[in-house]
Specification:
The complex is a heterodimer of chains A (247) and B (476). Chain A is of the alpha+beta class. In chain A, the strands form three sheets. In chain A, strands 6-2-3-4-18-17-16-10-14 form a nine-stranded antiparallel sheet. A five-stranded antiparallel sheet of chain A has the order 5-1-7-8-9. Chain A has a four-stranded antiparallel sheet with strand order 13-12-11-15. Chain A contains four helices and 18 strands. Chain B has 22 helices and seven strands. In chain B, helix 5 links the parallel strand 3 and strand 4. The chains are: A alpha+beta (247), B mainly alpha (476). At the A-B interface, helix 3 and strand 13 of A face helix 4, helix 20, helix 21 and helix 22 of B.
Chain lengths: 247, 476
């Protein structure tokens, strides 16, 4: 059972964060809120999202699982006004979700949760460098790098405590260094990994909206991004596997 | 759960038959490096190709990424899924990822346009082990096949099938007679999946199976062209021939060619002549069918070629060795030969700036004199393959030798370049480290930390200002 209302903005950010990587997901619903964890089709990136019940205007739920076609919801997003209140209601059979907003009522057929791949176990990674940067600054650097290359290296130097993003294309290069007040270190250690910009661009849209994003980085290890939204009531985590370097 | 899935072999050791294929796979996996070639599993459906790939990943502790024919496999999707996956490490800490691309011989559909090309590109770039699976090795596009090492899978023997089914029956607590098992094993023709499905189908809701229960599962089986042609020459009754030709999936014109292929084997010359008469009559009907687009005539053509030939052979039935129409083979060799000639002329035309047609008509002899002098150099200059060299040199062995020399040389060159690049890189890194060390040492006063911080801070500012400026210009 699920019956809830939520502000359009928070709803949109929730959907955007997940749809950046996957087309469908399994949503776990209980009294505390909603959460999902899922891996993209090529097993390269993972997204986990939690939105607590307090982020909703009203929220009543019993524990259940919902198979959501995120792509469908994303495509109707443009119909939702900025200040609308979106109400969600699961029908009794549990096969349809009614989404109402601004006079529209959209009934979406849910996916059988058996057809969605199993939830991954969040891997236990040893990532030495942990720090926070402004989301917008990070996303700008990603966008800029996209102009010259399809991959980017993220690196932290333990000596200087500078966070370097370096994108090298065939002929051109873009480098962005963050230091001083722009980076807040929790632990500063040597780390360097190479990542696909395709994925970072997709994730970046959500990251860019966050005031601060926490990055955990290792050497030739996946990178982890985590940030909060909806006034701290929702949290998103991304995990991205590194590219294998050419030689 | 259906049994084919339930009793899928979990480990390579459980794969039935195909010992040499399994050994080859294990060797490949154990010695795998990013330079290893991908494998191409080929063989009939249901004999354990996909199972072997999945079992391999499980045995090695590798993560699996599967790309099936049921997924739309356009260029974009293949690049996104397989391409990204094959160049990244695992997200979950597994050592490697095994990328399994199933049914690569089924890529030519409209939805998969560009797919073959995309897969070939990925194979070249991949940094993770890849296994391709196909029913028919020759259905796989050349560009892909050339990049893979083939692993042929063979049909599973009747006794092996029977043993496995007995095991399943024991596990499922079903009494099953030997006759029933051997009936299933025979009719599944070495296809494990079909056999297990048949067993599953005939045992649903029962606790014992006898041979009589098996038939239901065979109902929608199709007749093959071999059954039909065999029937025609063995003198099968008309009714049966009609049934066979109805169940056979071939078009009448190819059926006619199959039958025609065996007519010369008839003993009595007079009967042979009359049989050819029937075939030619059938051909007339086929011609009329096409000309008038009146497909009802097909039935006369079919009757004439099957019943007609069978009746001419009446009483003298024999079992013939059924061969595919030899004209197909001749046509395909001719076609291949033509393509080789054309591509050869094209490369030479480019090399000597002479029109292709003139190369073909006048210069081929002359150029083959050149080639004979130094085959390897000629081969390398024009980038020719064995077939093309054979045409030029009129000698298969010499052509193969020349191509091999060229490939060897190219390989050595490649290694050299790689080595040089690696050593250059190492040198650069060393230099950088020295520079860094020098920089750190420069201010020998105890003020080292601030100085060290100052240095990199001083450099970045102009770059720092530049980067966002570029970004904003382009994006807002």
């Amino acid at each position: 059972m699920l019956k809830a209302t939520i502000e359009a903005d928070i709803f949109r950010e929730t959907i955007d964060a997940v749809s950046a990587l996957v087309n469908e997901c399994r949503l776990h619903v209980d009294e505390k809120g909603i959460r999902t964890i899922t891996v993209d089709t090529s097993n390269v990136a993972m997204v986990s999202l939690e939105l607590s019940a307090s982020a909703f205007l009203t929220f009543a739920a019993e524990p259940c699982e919902i198979g959501l076609d995120i792509e469908k919801i994303r495509s109707m997003m443009s119909m939702i006004g900025k200040t609308d209140i979106v109400s969600l209601e699961l029908d009794d059979s549990g096969k349809k979700l009614k989404i109402s907003f601004g006079g529209y009522e959209y009934s979406i057929t849910l996916l059988d949760t058996k057809t969605i791949r199993k939830d991954p176990n969040a891997p236990n990674l040893n990532l030495p460098a942990t720090f926070e940067v402004p989301g917008a600054m990070f996303y700008d650097a990603i966008k800029a790098s996209g102009m010259v290359s399809d991959k980017i290296s993220l690196a932290v130097s333990a000596d200087t405590c500078v966070f370097t993003m370096n994108a090298e294309g065939d002929s051109d290069r873009i480098k962005r260094e963050l230091a001083g007040d722009d980076v807040h270190y929790i632990t500063c250690a040597d780390a360097r990994s190479l990542f696909s910009l395709d994925y970072l661009k997709d994730m970046g849209k959500s990251i860019g909206r966050a005031e601060k994003v926490q990055i955990r980085l290792g050497t030739d290890h996946p990178v982890q991004f985590s940030f909060v939204y909806a006034g701290g009531k929702g949290s998103v985590g991304y995990l991205l596997a590194p590219r294998i370097e050419a030689d | 759960m259906d049994w084919a899935e339930k009793y899928r072999p979990m480990h390579l050791a459980d794969i039935l038959g195909n010992g040499s294929a399994v050994r080859q796979i294990v060797d490949w996996a154990k010695t795998w490096t990013p330079d290893s070639r991908p494998l191409l599993f080929t063989g009939k459906p249901g004999i354990g190709k996909t199972s072997a790939a999945l079992a391999l990943a499980r045995d090695m502790g590798w993560e699996v990424l599967e790309l099936n024919a049921s997924d739309a496999r356009t260029k974009a999707i293949i690049e996104r899924v397989a391409g990204n996956s094959s160049t990244t490490t695992s997200l979950f800490g597994a050592g490697r990822k095994l990328i399994i691309i199933d049914e690569v011989d089924n890529l030519e559909g409209n939805a998969d346009r560009g797919g073959a090309r995309a897969i070939a590109d990925i194979l070249k770039e991949a940094k993770q082990p890849i296994v391709l699976i196909a029913n028919d090795a020759y259905g796989v596009s050349d560009s892909i096949r050339r990049l893979c090492d083939p692993v042929p899978f063979r049909a599973i023997g009747v006794s092996t099938l029977q043993k496995r089914m007995k095991e399943i029956c024991r596990l499922e607590d079903i009494a099953c007679g030997e006759d029933a098992l051997s009936a299933i094993a025979e009719s599944s023709a070495g296809d494990m999946r079909t056999a297990v499905n048949m067993l599953f189908g005939s045992s649903t809701g029962k606790t014992s199976i006898s041979a009589g229960d098996i038939n239901t599962a065979q109902k929608d089986e199709r007749a093959t062209i071999f059954d039909l042609v065999g029937g025609v020459f063995a003198g099968a009754p008309d009714r049966e021939l009609q049934k066979l030709s109805f169940e056979c999936d071939e078009k009448p014109d190819s059926v006619m060619q199959w039958i025609e292929e065996s007519i010369p084997l008839m003993h009595d010359p007079k009967r042979r002549i009359r049989a050819y008469g029937r075939i030619s009559r059938a051909d007339v009907y086929l011609g009329r069918t096409m000309r008038r687009q009146y497909f009802t005539l097909w039935r006369y053509a079919t009757s004439m070629m099957t019943l007609g030939v069978a009746s001419e052979n009446a009483g003298a039935g024999f079992r013939t060795r059924i061969m595919p129409p030899s004209r197909w083979k001749r046509m395909s060799t001719a076609k291949k030969q033509k393509t080789v000639r054309r591509t050869l002329a094209a490369s030479l035309a480019e090399g000597y700036s002479i029109p292709e047609s003139q190369i073909q008509s006048q210069y081929l002899d002359l150029l083959s004199r050149f080639a004979e002098k130094d085959p390897a150099a000629f081969c390398e200059r024009h980038n020719l393959d064995v077939d093309q060299m054979t045409i030029i040199l009129h000698d298969k062995a010499a052509a193969a030798a020349a191509v091999k020399t060229v490939q060897q040389a190219a390989k050595e060159r490649d290694m050299k370049v790689k080595k040089m690049a690696a050593s250059k890189k190492a040198e650069m890194r060393k230099l950088e480290e020295q520079l860094e060390a020098l920089r750190m040492q420069e201010p020998p006063v105890p003020e080292t930390p601030p100085a060290a911080e100052e240095l990199p801070l001083e450099e970045p500012p102009d770059e720092k200002k530049l980067a966002p400026k570029q970004a904003t210009l382009d994006f807002f």
